[in-house]
Structure formats: structure tokens, C-alpha cells
Amino acid sequence: MKITNICCIGAGYVGGPTMAVIAHKCPDIKVTIVDLNAERIAAWNDENTDNLPVYEPGLDQIVLSARGRNLFFSTDVEKAIDEAQMIFISVNTPTKTYGLGKGKAADLKYIELCARQIAAVAKDDKIVVEKSTLPVRTAEAVKNILDSTGNGVKFQILSNPEFLAEGTAVEDLLNPDRVLIGGDTDAEGQAAINALVDVYANWIPKERILTTNVWSSELSKLTANAFLAQRVSSINAMSELCEKTGADVNEVARAIGMDSRIGPKFLKSSVGFGGSCFQKDILNLVYIAKSYGLDEVADYWEQVIIMNDHQKRRFAANIVKTLYNTVSGKKITFLGWAFKKDTNDTRESAAIYVADDLLHEQANIAVFDPKVEETTIFRDLDYLATRKPEENKAGVTVYQDPYEACRGTHAIAVLTEWDEFKGYDWQKIYDNMKKPAFVFDGRNVLNGKELKEIGFIFTGVGKAY
Ligand code: NAD
Ligand code: UGA
């Protein structure tokens, strides 16, 4: 079957960029991205691409190239489902906050709603593609719901997990290491797989398009994220040992990374990983393993999260300890709030947890982030529900200018590795700070030697200074 009409449910960080790239690369396919969130859809349709709801380098150009031609954003979910041959489900799958599996299992209510809506609307056969990250065997539940109408419409379920990383989404989508497609092993399943392979083959070499059974594909996505997060926790565990022993974590990472079996990527020690997925997906993996009675498997992966929580907490504790055991009433400046550079996404960012710890210590926090809005910062803190919103408002001030954020401050903490931080006039910042002037570089991006020469008391991660 040749695909000419695609619908994607969910216009978020994955649905938006992924479908924009498909539309950009496949001018013969009409791609409609739908969402219940009318504000988000309006932002995707905004004439001014600065207002797109997702910031990703290069995304504005991709959207402009296809929007109105074969790329459409709409709130009319039913119409888009009805017209499409292939429907991607790209809705959020957060950690459950209630009931059975609370705090660990993935909340699949949005997925189920999509399946029910597709079942209710579809009048002809459809290929339904799981783009969201899902627990292994979700396709079974989706199929049960779709097949329950008894109206003769046939559905094929594919798993096509997304491996893009935020900040490099466009580059990752244009030039992925691989695309993974899982489907049924029978003839209809294979035909559905081939239809999706043909879409990607418009710009991705066939040898990088991997096909498997559905369960392998679903589980590979959780596995990939667990392995990636595990590398960060592994190097972060070593960073603490480096600080005690005089080893330098950057040197250790370089030395082990040159072993081709280990490889150099994803070995940057930090204040801890954030982002919407690593923690959620590992907790989900832990929950799945436990549900099969695999306690050792569950405990093994849970340790990755325990280590990450420790890394965030000890960064905050080190600030308090270094500032003579009290930050009460002291201005502490955060450079960066996003969970990594080149994104406006702050979900699970380490900055939120470090700020929360320092607010417990009665610090006055000043925040500057080049892409994150003030409302987002307060929403993140309020979501923790550790204190009243008025108290967060009283304890945190958001600045539009980094030099103002640093004026009169006792200490600067780098929470995100934005490139621009390296180019600041650090002498000017030093001159306007309280003395002694402290810098805690949670990303190891600043030049510690130069900053020490200026007069700063400098600490990075994983190195005794
Ligand atoms: P997101 O929250 O940014 O977007 C999800 C969107 O789905 C929201 O706009 C929401 O309004 C919409 N939605 C929810 N239910 C709906 C419904 N019934 N009908 C229509 N719209 C509905 O989430 P995201 O970051 O794009 O993640 C989506 C999925 O992709 C998750 O499973 C995530 O684990 C996975 N994933 C995310 C990334 C990433 O970098 N963010 C990367 C790979 C995979
Ligand atoms: C991650 C994966 O890299 C993607 O392949 C996956 O598709 C995605 O999760 C997902 O499923 O959501 P993302 O979270 O966007 O992508 O960004 P990463 O580059 O993986 O960074 C995650 C966190 O780890 C960030 O806070 C980052 O600063 C931190 N990190 C990463 C380190 O501290 N050190 C490193 O060496 C690498």
C-alpha cells in the first residue's frame, strides 16, 4: 500500500518535529498533526515561527517548508483520523500519579483514549503506529480496543519508537542512526511494515531501517533509554569518587571512551540527567520487571535513578556546605533551567530539584535561562507541591539578563550547558558579585582555571579543585 495521507495524534516535542520532517521529505504525503490542546495547535500555526511551541534548532525552516503545502496542524481529531491511511499515536505517557503502579508504571490513559477514538471514527482499514514510548505488550491492548467494534474495519498495529534527543531533534530525524519498526510477523503485518518502511525510505538508507516483531521494538525503546541513562549515572558515580581521590572525571571519561568497546559519547558528568523520559522510562521498566517477579532486574535498573537523585542532592548540599553551611537569605544565581542546552524543555530538569533543596535552606534564587519562560519555572516548582506557590514566588526571581541575575549574588550555579555561558564577561560578573565569589559548574562547561585567576572560588563536578 502506498501511503498518501498520515495523521498524527499529539503535537508535542515528538509529534511536531517528527511529522514536520516526514512532510518536508515526502511532499506527496499529506500529514495532519492533531491535538486536543487548541493553544498548542494555534502556536504551531503561528505566522511568526519564534512562537512555535517547541524550540529546536532548524525546526522553523522545516515547518515553513511544508506548512500549508502538505503539513497541517488542527484540532479536528476525528476528521484527520477518518481521512488518514496511517495514524501515528504520539501522545504523552507520563508516570502514573495515582492508583496501582503509582510513581512507577506508565499512565496509558491518553493512549487508550486515542485507540478508542480511532475505533469510533474509522470507516476503512488503518495502520496504527505507536510513536509514543510504551511498556512492552501495549500493542496487544491497543489491538483489543481497536478490534472491539466488530464493524469489519481491520487494523494493523506497528511499533515505531522515536529515538530523537531534544536540542538535536531535526538533525536526529534527518539523519538517524536507525529507524525501528516492529509489526506482526504474518503477511498483513509485513505489508504494514513495508508501507512505513517506504515512507522513511524517502530519505533514510534502507540498511538503517530495522524491522522486528512488535514486542522487540517496544522493549528496545525502553532498553535504549535505560542504557543511555545508565551511562550518565555510571560516570556520575565515578565523579564523586574522583572528587575524593584527585582523579579528574573528564580525564577518566576520555581514557575509557577511547576503548572502542565503550565509546566516547554520553560520558559527560553532570548535576544529573533530566528530561521527560529517562526517569519515566526506567521507572516503567522497573515496574514491568517487578510485575513479572524479576526483582533483581528491577533493582538493578532502579539503581540508575537512585544514583541520579543522589547526584542532584549532593550538588545542592555542596553549595550549602561551601557557603559556610548557610544559604539562608543569600542570593544564589542559576545559569540555566532547561534540562539540557538548545531546548526550552524543562521537564525533570535537575535545576528544579536543586532549586527546591536550596529553597528549603531559605536561599533567594535568581534564574536566567536563554529560552525558558518565567511561567514555566514557577509551574515546575509549584508542581512539586513542596511549598505554597506564594512561597516559590517569594524565593525565586527570574531575570531576562544574565549580568543582572548575577549582580550582588553570593554564588553562581551552572545548571544547563548553554554555549553562551562560556562567552560571558566573567571579570564583569566577578566585579559585581559579593565576595568571596563562588561558581559551582554543574556541567563542567566553564574554564575553571581562568575563573580562578579572576578570583572566583570555583568547583566543577568530578574534580578536586
Ligand atoms: P508532549 O507532552 O510534548 O506531547 C503530547 C501531546 O499529546 C500533548 O500536546 C497533548 O495535548 C496531546 N494529547 C494527549 N492526549 C491526546 C488525545 N487523546 N488526543 C489528542 N491529543 C492528545 O509529549 P512528547 O514529549 O511529545 O512525548 C510523546 C511520547 O513520545 C511519549 O511517550 C514520550 O515518552 C515519547 N518520546 C519523547 C521524546 C522527547 O524527546 N520528548 C523522545 C522520544 C520519545
Ligand atoms: C533521550 C535520548 O537520548 C533519546 O534517544 C530519546 O529518544 C529520548 O531521551 C526520549 O526517549 O525522550 P533527551 O532526553 O532529549 O533524549 O536528551 P539527552 O541528550 O539524552 O539528555 C538527557 C539528559 O542526560 C540531559 O539532562 C543531559 O544533560 C544528560 N546527559 C546526557 C548528561 O548529563 N551527560 C551525558 O553525557 C549525556
Automatic annotation (TrEMBL):
Keyword Transmembrane helix included in the entry's annotation: no
UniProt-annotated catalytic positions: C277 (nucleophile)
InterPro entries, per database record: 6-PGluconate_DH-like_C_sf, NAD(P)-bd_dom_sf, UDP-Glc/GDP-Man, UDP-Glc/GDP-Man_DH_C, UDP-Glc/GDP-Man_DH_C_sf, UDP-Glc/GDP-Man_DH_dimer, UDP-Glc/GDP-Man_DH_N, UDPglc_DH_euk
Binding site residues for NAD(+): 10-15, 35, 40, 91-95, 132-133, 166, 277-280, 347
Catalytic activity: UDP-alpha-D-glucose + 2 NAD(+) + H2O = UDP-alpha-D-glucuronate + 2 NADH + 3 H(+)
GO BP field: glycosaminoglycan biosynthetic process; UDP-glucuronate biosynthetic process
First-tier enzyme category under EC: oxidoreductase
Similarity field: Belongs to the UDP-glucose/GDP-mannose dehydrogenase family.
Function: Catalyzes the conversion of UDP-glucose into UDP-glucuronate, one of the precursors of teichuronic acid.
Cited PANTHER family: UDP-GLUCOSE 6-DEHYDROGENASE, UDP-GLUCOSE DEHYDROGENASE/UDP-MANNAC DEHYDROGENASE
Name under which the protein is recorded: UDP-glucose 6-dehydrogenase
Organism this protein belongs to: Flavobacterium album
